[in-house]
């Protein structure tokens, strides 16, 4: 599903974020990306959906050569990648259903299909009764569920989550993780950057540890391994 070959990333200010990353992530895996603050986790995540481009190296995501893809094909590639952020990134003037629908409207899906699919994914994330609520009428956990529904609505092959529980209380964090587990059980590949030690240590999944821009640990049923 995802492969990085000798990937380096140096920012214009001279900061070296990634230094020779080699990794393969198979279809259907659930992978945690951990490491100290500033280790390169966010850059690692952003390269997968072409938010950033590598300085050197090759990246494949679901058959797309991400580092060499033509600009006009980037939207096609991104349809197959759902992204979930720490701060939700919902449009405040739109209802929950409209936020989810927007991801389908962008690709010009038929209106009837949009309505049906939005209802399906909102039911899946447990918010079938919140379709018409604005984001400020929802709790933080509910907003993150809407964000996950938006990431899911186009049936992506992979979901990339950058600290999805970072702004949530412990109980709500567990609810979100159970939801991501359910999505993974249906075959969707999930790559999640996190500082949530308890979640990583309890839900034994593959762990990639990044330090100083390098993968220093790759464990099939790993632990968090840091105190921060």
TrEMBL record:
Entry's Gene Ontology BP terms: cell division
This protein's record includes keyword Ribosomal protein: no
InterPro entries the UniProt entry points to: AAA+_ATPase (IPR003593), ABC_transporter-like_ATP-bd (IPR003439), ABC_transporter-like_CS (IPR017871), ABC_transpr_LolD-like (IPR015854), Cell_div_FtsE (IPR005286), P-loop_NTPase (IPR027417)
Transport among keywords: yes
Domain called ABC transporter: residue spans: 2-227
Membrane topology: Peripheral membrane protein
Gene Ontology CC terms, in alphabetical order: plasma membrane
Domain of life according to the entry: Bacteria
Subcellular location: Cell membrane
Major location (coarse): membrane
Protein family per UniProt: Belongs to the ABC transporter superfamily.
Oligomer status and interactors: Homodimer. Forms a membrane-associated complex with FtsX.
Entry function: Part of the ABC transporter FtsEX involved in cellular division.
PANTHER family, sorted: CELL DIVISION ATP-BINDING PROTEIN FTSE, IMPORT ATP-BINDING PROTEIN
Protein name, UniProt field: Cell division ATP-binding protein FtsE
Gene: ftsE
């Amino acid at each position: 599903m995802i492969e990085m070959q000798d990937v380096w990333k140096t920012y214009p200010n001279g900061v070296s974020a990634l230094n020779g990353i080699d990794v393969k992530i198979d279809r259907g895996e659930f992978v945690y990306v951990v490491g100290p603050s500033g280790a390169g986790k966010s850059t690692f995540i952003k390269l997968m959906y072409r938010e950033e481009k590598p300085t050197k190296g090759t990246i494949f995501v679901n058959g797309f050569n991400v580092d060499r893809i033509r600009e006009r094909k980037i939207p096609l590639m991104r349809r197959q990648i759902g992204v979930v952020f720490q701060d939700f990134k919902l449009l405040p003037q739109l209802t929950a259903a409209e936020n989810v629908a927007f991801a389908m409207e962008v690709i010009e899906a038929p209106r009837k299909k949009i309505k049906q699919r939005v209802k399906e994914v909102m039911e899946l994330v447990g918010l079938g009764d919140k379709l018409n609520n604005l984001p400020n009428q929802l709790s933080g956990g509910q907003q993150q569920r809407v964000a996950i529904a938006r990431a899911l609505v186009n049936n992506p092959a992979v979901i990339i989550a950058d600290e999805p529980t970072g702004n949530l209380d412990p109980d709500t964090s567990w609810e979100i993780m159970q939801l991501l587990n359910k999505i993974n059980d249906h075959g969707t590949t999930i790559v999640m950057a996190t500082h949530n030690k308890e979640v990583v240590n309890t839900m034994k999944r593959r762990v990639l540890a990044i330090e100083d821009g390098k993968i220093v640990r790759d464990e099939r049923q790993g632990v968090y391994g840091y105190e921060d």
